[in-house]
Amino acid sequence: MRTGTEHEFSLNSPAMIPRPESDLVLAEVCPGCEGEAPFAGVTLCKELQKTVLEFIPPSPSDRLEDLEAPLVNGIRAFFARFSRRYTLLGLGMHPCLTLDQTAVWDRGESEYYAAYDRLFGIRQHGWLNIQALQVNLEYRDEGQLVRMHNRIRCLLPYLAAVTAASPFVEGAAPGPACNRLIYYRENQRQVPAICNGIIPEPIVSVRDYCSRLDAVYAALRERGAGVLCEEWVASAGVIVRFSRPCIEVKVPDEQECIHADMAVCAFLRALVRAGDPGIDADRGSLLALMEEAIQRGTAGLEPELSRLYRKAWDAATAGERKYLPVVRSRIEGGSLAERMENDYRENRDLPGLMERLARCLAENRPFGE
After folding, report:
1. Cα separation of 25 and 87, whole Å?
2. pTM above the 0.85 mark?
3. Topology, domain 3-363
4. Read out DSSP for 209-255?
5. Alpha helix locations (H) across the chain?
6. Count of beta carbons in the 10 Å neighbourhood of residue 110
């Protein structure tokens, strides 16, 4: 199953203070490049917020090892080159960032950002302090597209639980395990169909999906925001990208290291391959499960997650099985958010915790291992 990934990391000083300088980094590594730049075998890309850099592997691959290796090399090259000025941190949100510490990308695509700001107001955490692991799964034909979309929508609460990694906002004591999704599902509430509560309804055909997208476009045009009428405007937890073509999964929080990201990919791919996940597909039930995942991570969903893990293991390739134990550890011992909360309650040292999580990224080592 050919897979592509996109990884978002916050850009910080060595003391873990957010630095809104992604434009300076990109200009340094590739003078004249606008918005993205080749670097050490990967692509560095800007995001809306200048405190985030996105790392993208060279190309999609059937083998997760072929995604992991160049990403790890690129991150190590970044640390080697910039360690005196910057460090990188994963997670679904920067734990301490306040909105005055970041800035909006201002070197192109201003018409899109102006439209978003006018409609939704982008000076909020749901725009300027979120970091996602995006997983793109290629499809062959319409039948496979429909099957994948409908299976993945049922898996979204469980992916959110396993990947929850945003328990801190502006340095406050831990709250929900996945604050990122709370902000994400509210950041475009003026046009609810864009995000649709994260979990979309099932589809029966490409035409069905496109009719829903057309309804979003109509709502945007009514508000004078026709510039946003592109397939990427859809923001549910799983969307279709016809231009690539792939199913794009947007629910996971960024994890602390690339190896953990690849474990999430392995879990998802194996479950998609396994067929019917055996989950109640009713949207109301899925939304309730999503709320449980957002609030508590894996804590309230362990029995069902364990069942899904066994299903994934049985369907996994040998390559995927090398990564899956990380997911098993998150199911049995808590998501990254839960582990962060436990560490904080024991040590009361959020800056120290952030520094250790940054080392996990630099060393490609899951937290606590």
Report:
1. 12
2. yes
3. Creatine Kinase; Chain A, domain 2 (3.30.590)
4. HHHHHHHHHHHHHHTT-GGG-SGGG--SSEEEETTTTEEEE--PBP-
5. 22-29, 64-82, 110-120, 125-128, 142-163, 179-186, 206-222, 258-274, 283-296, 302-315, 318-321, 324-333, 336-347, 350-363
6. 12
What are the residue boundaries of the structural domains of the chain, listed by start? 3-363
Q: Are 55 and 68 in contact (CB under 8 A)?
A: no
> Token pair for residue 100?
């005055």
Alpha carbon distance 165, 357 (integer Å)? 11
Closest CA to 197 of 283, 319, 87: 283
Which residues fall within 8 angstroms of residue 246, CB to CB, at 6 or more apart?
4, 60, 136, 137, 138, 139, 240
Listed in sequence order, the residues at least 6 apart from 257 whose beta carbon sits closer than 8 Å to its beta carbon are 90, 360, 361, 363, 364, 365, 366, 367
What is the widest separation between alpha-carbon atoms in the chain?
54
pLDDT in tens, 138-158: 999 999 999 999 999 999 999
Tally Cβ neighbours within 10 Å of residue 31. Answer: 8
Tokens of 325: 């134990």
The CA–CA distances, whole Å, from 74 to 59, 123, 128, 256 equal 14, 30, 24, 15
d(CA 118, CA 248): 26
Q: Residue 14 corresponds to which amino acid?
A: P
* Number of Cβ atoms within 10 Å of the Cβ of 107: 13
The string of pLDDT tens digits covering residues 78-94 is: 999 999 999 999 999 99
Q: Could you tell me which residues come within 8 angstroms of residue 249 by beta carbon, excluding any fewer than 6 positions away? A: 134, 135, 136, 137, 152, 159, 237, 238, 268
Alpha carbon of 193 to those of 33, 234, 319, 337: distances in Å? 35, 8, 38, 29
